Amino acid sequence: MSRTDAGHLRYVALGDSQTEGLGDGDDLTGLRGWADRLAENLARRSPELRYANLAVRGRLAREVRDGQLAPALALEPDLATVVAGVNDLMRPRFDADEVAGHLEAMFSALTAQGALVATLTFPDLTLLIPLARPLSSRVTALNARIRDAARRHGVVVAETSGHPVVTDPRLWSVDRLHAGPLGHQLIADAVAHALALPGSDDSWTSPLPLEGLPAAGRRTVGGELRWAGTFLGPWLGRRLLGRSSGDGRTAKRPQLLPVRPPQDGASEADPPLSQGPLDEGPLDEGRLSPGRRTASPSP
């Protein structure tokens, strides 16, 4: 990966809520997420790194392609990550070939322009969300097509599926739909390993220590019903109303900007230009500015 070592990368991240960083921070203090963590890793060796994050929560693969590919190409990245499809998996009508087609179009355009592109496979979340069991075959089908498309275009694949650690509840936020801080770090480590970054290894695949595994990991009927009412119900409600959690939002970091690597255990990236009332005050250390909002959020 000579371009990574050369110290002149322009890294652009495309995707949905996981790449935006939901579950790692919040909208008031700013979201971090695995892509920010990967950028911080790159900046340790390449201080001149410039990083943009175009991801917006709730986006389908088609919407990522339609709304983010052209801006990404205009930024002329040396490195790009493309992760999308989870929101498609959860829709009543799902076509793995169609979703993979949108991903492949992005792979093709970015690699044709000279970017090194990385993507992920998705874990089967049945152990975290028993109600997601019907989606298991969809995940398997989409992962197979992601691998095939990546192979055709020389895209690097971080295989986050197939490792038991990825369904450890400690890696996930309370909604079980988004990674928590530890999970975002694991994804960043997985992508760094797939890119063969100096200092990276496969330690991210190792199980977490058994001590500390919360009793909440043992699901109960009552707990599942409470989870469904708190998180699944609102999600289904938005779908029925034709709304998305990303309505009115734009990218949190639409321009290529410098990244300050972590120091003394902290982690911080230079925030983007002012993005409205949410970032008028100082940001907590270790957070990027929250995503921009252009209209009222959907419920």
From TrEMBL:
It comes from the Bacteria. This is Lysophospholipase. The lineage of its organism: Bacteria, Bacillati, Actinomycetota, Actinomycetes, Streptosporangiales. Residues 13-186 form the SGNH hydrolase-type esterase domain. It comes from Planotetraspora kaengkrachanensis. Residues 243-299 are annotated as: Disordered. InterPro entries: GDSL_Rv0518-like, SGNH_hydro, SGNH_hydro_sf.
